[in-house]
Design goal:
By secondary structure, the chain is an alpha/beta fold. The protein has a single domain, classed as TIM Barrel (Alpha-Beta Barrel). Strands 5-2-1-11-10-9-8-7-6 form a nine-stranded parallel beta sheet. The protein has a two-stranded parallel ribbon with strand order 3-4. Helix 1 runs parallel beside helix 3 and helix 4 runs parallel beside helix 5. The longest helix has 19 residues. The protein is globular. The relative contact order is 0.15.
């Protein structure tokens, strides 16, 4: 255990105007062993036309499995971010994502608390989150799917806040999807925070933050969609690898960057420390 594998979040092809299958093939071409698809409800124009990588959960989940099998890659998990504070959205979205993941072989479903309703209090939001997570956990447990809670929004922007969300429901299906970039931008030490959640870590978003973004945004935001190429920003990847090697489980580093070129440079840099 404690082996580290390299994967890529499908956001790396967001600007390529190509479909999911093209993105999976490109990830394999770059040398990634795993991919993390993004799934959505319903239908939307760009994905249906083949100009965007997200997969509708109204599609056959075996579409994802076939694309991965054809390209020789595996699934690290799903990017299934939905507002836990809004159960009218989050409950059914997560339950469907979990069932979808189980059928196509994705072991982890990643999410965060999402933007909160404008009219609720903090205490009310935590009751709402507990409801959403309980419903999701009851579907995830018998299927062997893990939920990865990510530091990304108003309540998870600090270690204590993420711990509080994690503790809302006692379930072996709930773990942490740590995001190196978000934790840094929130104004915290990402290495100390990673150490704190290591025994609950189920997945890792390998996100680097440029010096420029660090100077302008650190301490002012709760996260960012994607980072720069790993190795070209402020994150010490050798240190992150050393910490994760002490995990009791194998961990996939899912690179979160915004272009194919950044994904290529990221795998070259991360491979120096992982292989």
């Amino acid at each position: 255990m404690g082996n580290i594998k390299l994967g890529v979040n499908m956001e790396f092809v967001r600007h390529e105007d190509k479909n999911f299958e093209w993105g999976v093939a490109k990830a394999a071409e770059l040398g990634y062993e795993y991919v993390e698809p993004m799934v959505h409800w319903g239908r939307e124009l760009l994905s249906e036309a083949g100009y965007f990588h997200s997969v509708s959960m109204l599609d056959d989940p075996l579409r994802i499995k076939r694309a991965c099998d054809q390209s020789g890659v595996k699934l690290s998990g799903f990017s299934a971010h939905t507002p836990l504070c809004k159960p009218e959205i989050g409950v059914e979205y997560l339950k469907q994502a979990i069932r979808f993941a189980a059928e196509c072989g994705a072991p982890v479903v990643n999410t965060d608390e999402g933007p909160k309703p404008v009219w609720t209090t903090e205490e009310e939001d935590h009751v709402l989150m507990r409801y959403t997570l309980m419903e999701a956990a009851r579907v995830a447990e018998p299927r062997g799917i893990l939920l990865g809670l990510e530091p990304h929004q108003q309540y998870s922007r600090n270690p204590a806040g993420l711990d509080r969300i994690y503790a809302l429901v006692k379930s072996p299906a709930i773990g942490i999807n740590f995001d190196t970039g978000n934790s840094y931008l929130c104004g915290h030490d990402p290495y100390e925070w990673l150490e704190r959640v290591l025994d609950r870590l189920v997945h890792l978003h390998a996100k680097d933050i440029s010096v420029r973004q660090s100077a302008s945004d650190r301490g002012k935001v709760t996260g960012t969609p994607v980072g720069c190429a790993c190795g070209e920003g402020v994150i010490d990847w050798q240190r992150v690898v050393e910490i994760c090697r002490r995990s009791s489980r194998d961990i996939v580093f899912s690179v979160e960057c915004g272009t194919v070129e950044q994904a290529e440079r990221s795998i070259i840099h991360l491979s120096k420390w992982i292989h």
